[in-house]
Structure formats: C-alpha cells, structure tokens
Write a structure and sequence with these properties.
Copper Amine Oxidase, Chain A, domain 1, seven-stranded mixed sheet, five-stranded antiparallel sheet
Length: 468
C-alpha cells in the first residue's frame, strides 16, 4: 500500500537573521535579473503539512525549484547565516546550503544536487525534493498536487481510540507509567494529553469531547480533550475494571469490585454512586449499556471445578476439570418490576468482541476450539445464535451506531474490512488491506487500522500513516 504522510503546518516565523533575509528574501515574485536565469517565477500551491501554501517556484531543466525562504517559513524551521551559508534546523537535522552550490551539507554529509542553488531576484531557489528530504520530510504527488510532510510522527504508540472528528488518542508505556497522546489524524501532529501510573485506559465519550479514567487507587477523573484539564469526580477507591459512558454523557456505568460482581452508576454532576445490579454473580465482563440505561448485556465466566482431593492441597494431586470453563452472555433489564438476568448463550465456544446497542440483542465473534473460521454471531433471549458472517475468518468486529465493522482474513496476503447493517442485514466490502493489519478502530465515518505497529487512517481513498 502507498503510505502518504501529511501534517499540519507551523506558521510561526522562522528565526532568520537580517543577513538571511537578504540571502533568501521573501519578496514578491520577480523576473530574473539579467544574466542569472531565464526561468519564470510562478506562485505554486503546495500542500505543506496539511495546509495549502503558496510558494514561489521555478521549473528548471525539468526540476521544480522553490524559494528557500518560503519553505523555511512554511515548515516552521529555524535558520541563520553562518559563514555565508544558510543553516536550517528541523526534526534534529542540520542542513547547510550555499548559493550556486550543487551540494547540501546534511548532518555533516554532502548530498549532491542535480543543479546548483539558483538566485533569482535576490531570492535563493533550491530543488524541492532534496531540500525537504534533508530535514526528514517527504514529497508525494496526489491528485496532481505536491504534498509535503516534515513533522516527525510519534513512534511505538498503541491502543488507538477515535476522539472526535479528526483526532485519535494513542498510548505509550514505559517504566514510569503510561503517556497518552492526542494525535491529529489529518497531520500526525501530536501532543501529550495525560501521564498516569497504574491508571485505567482513557475511555472516550460518545461526542469525543472528553474521556474518563481511573487512577491507580480507583478514583475517577474526566479529562476535557480541548483544554486537557482533568476533573476529579469521585475519590471512591473501589475497583472499577470497566467504564462505560451513558448516552447523554451525564454518568458513567462500571463494574465494581475485584470480581466485577456489581454493576454501578456514577453521577458526574455530584459524584454519587448507585448500585444497579447486585446479584452476587461474580466475573462479569464486557459490559454493554443500552441508550436508556435500563438494559445491560455482559458476559459471565465460570471457572474450572476441583473434582478430587479438594482438601489435600499439600500433596499436589488436585484434579481440576477445566472443561467447566465457560463464558456465557446474559442480559439484564433493570426496568422490569422484578429484574433478573436472562441467559442468552449456552455454547462452549470462546466469545470475543461483545457488542449490543439496545441491551436485548448481542453480537459477538465465536471462536471455534478446532478447525474452521471464527464467525460473527448474534443472539437474543431466544438462545438461538444466528450466523451473521463467516465467509472469511473473522479477526475483529466493532459496532458503531447500527453498523457492524468486520476485519476478516481473506487469504495469506490480504484481509478485508466489511460493513454490515444490523437493521437491513446488507453487507458491503469497504477495503482490502494487508494481512499485516491486526486491528481496526471505527467511529461514525472515521476508520483507522493498526498495521505492523503503525496507526493508519483512511484518507481520500488511501491509507495514511499517522504514527511510526
């Protein structure tokens, strides 16, 4: 696949001394001085770090040369004149160029140019591609227009989550804890959002404007994704293994306790906690909450049974029947007069990627213990699983609105991303991607994939890397 990196432009003025201004002047387009060049200077529109920028350019001997000063300003580089040469610094690179020279000095290494740096109307012009690549950038052609990227991408980021239009949250872990970053999907530009040690993942709200998390002690915070300010909601230290936003973003549902036996609700206005389901059933997971907040779908895991010598633990001859390990789906209607859990499944297959929009019907990926494809299934109170998709081996499923997005392995080299309408049942193939794609992230019309540790977003029919 062709990866194109496009980033937001930094419009801050470059640090240019008076002598640099004379060497690489930003004067209006001018005709060449007599005896310098017959090339005609034109204003060209380039996509530079995500924005359309007008720069002065010439085409000379079939190669595009651009005004050095214009490019310096557009990419937000630092520059100064040292010993008659213009020295540019960006992304840890140091580039030295001199008028009429056919070489660039890039981090101490000489890079040959096809033609010398030209002077037209008192302005220096250099070949676009080597100038951009010297500071770690890329140049590509898209829809007949040159696209330039010079901002460094975040490296080694994990767990992408869509956070409103045009943004993702990604995380990096180290010995000190976890750093969460907000990434602009149009540009790859990123900023530190939160640093935690032992806290939960950030869970983004339905609107994408805020996210909730717990610290290592279990206290709950909400962070505003615009101001980056965190607000303490409750200091309650009970374990909260799963956090789920209410549809109106006024509260948070969560499983409570180290065994997840309770379903509770946290009011964001006053920090009060109310237990909604307290049926003493342990090991609840995969909590889904309906828009009304009255219905829940979740899984319950039963563990293996000790079948012999249960009391003689010192003799190391305890027999445990692991075939009893099962995970089943349940629904719970808290709006009933006498609410109770309803078992939806009875099969012994592994069940992953559990989703429900209404708290009545659930969708999940069934993973067989033996040969055969993993299948996307649906089930309701009838306890009759329905096969939704199994043409290819299902690797992941995500429910966004009324659409199920499916990542499935097509063959050894390719995977497919499908959209399945849960109302009409209509299926459509959206993309064919590399088999190296390990997961997808979807919210509304936004989609991202993880491929070989990089996060890529869909942009105008192609995949663009926003991390490396």
């Amino acid at each position: 696949m062709s990866m194109k990196k496009v980033f937001v432009v930094s419009m801050a003025a470059a640090v240019i001394t008076t002598s640099v201004a004379g060497a690489v002047s930003a004067a209006p387009a001018a005709k060449p001085a007599a005896g310098t060049s017959t090339a005609q200077v034109k204003n060209a529109t380039l996509t530079i770090n995500g924005n359309n920028i007008i720069v002065r350019s010439i085409v000379k001997n079939g190669e595009t040369l651009v005004a050095v000063r214009d490019i310096i300003n557009a990419i937000g580089a630092q520059a100064e004149v040292v010993g008659g040469a213009t020295v540019i610094q960006l992304n840890g690179h140091k580039v030295s160029l001199q008028n009429k020279s056919k070489q660039l000095d890039v981090d101490g290494t000489k890079v040959d140019l096809n033609q010398p740096i030209s002077i037209i109307g008192g302005t220096s012009y250099a070949a676009l591609r080597p100038l951009v690549s010297s500071v770690g950038g890329t140049v590509s052609l898209k829809n007949g227009q040159l696209e330039i990227s010079t901002i460094a991408l975040i490296e080694g980021a994990e767990n992408p989550r869509i956070a409103g239009a045009g943004h993702l949250i990604v995380s990096k872990n180290d010995e000190q804890g976890r750093n969460d970053y907000l990434v602009d999907t149009a540009t790859g530009k990123y900023e530190l959002l939160l640093t935690t040690e032992g806290g939960s993942d950030l869970v983004v709200s339905p609107s994408g404007t805020q996210a909730v998390y717990t610290n290592a002690e279990g206290a709950v915070y909400v962070i505003d994704l615009t101001t980056k300010a965190s607000k303490l909601i409750t200091s309650d230290t009970s374990i909260k293994p799963e956090l789920v936003w209410s549809a109106d973003e006024s509260s948070i549902y969560f499983l409570q306790g180290d065994k997840g036996s309770v379903i509770a609700n946290l009011n964001l206005a006053d920090g009060s906690i109310k237990k909604l389901v307290e049926d003493k059933v342990d090991y609840k997971e995969n909590l889904n909450v309906s828009a009304s907040g009255k219905r829940f779908i979740y899984t319950v895991t039963t563990l293996g049974k000790v079948t012999a010598d249960a009391t003689n633990v010192d003799e190391d001859n305890i027999d445990i029947d692991f075939s009893a390990n099962q995970q089943q789906l349940f629904s719970y209607n808290n709006g009933d007069g006498k609410p109770e859990a309803v078992k939806l499944t009875t099969s012994t297959d592994d069940k992953v990627f559990i989703y429900s929009a209404d708290g009545q019907k659930a969708y999940y990926v069934s993973v067989p213990s033996g040969e055969g494809n993993a299948s996307l299934m649906s089930v309701d109170a009838s306890q009759k699983p329905v096969n939704v998709y199994n043409e290819h081996d299902v690797e992941q499923a995500i429910l966004s609105g009324s659409i199920l997005y499916v990542l499935a392995s097509q063959d050894e080299k390719n995977s497919v991303i499908l959209a399945i309408d849960t109302v009409t049942g209509q299926q459509s193939k959206l993309y064919t991607v590399s088999s190296d794609v390990s997961s997808i992230v979807v919210k509304g019309a936004q989609i991202a994939v993880v491929e070989n540790g990089r996060v890529l977003v869909q942009a105008e029919g192609g995949w663009k890397s926003i991390t490396k």
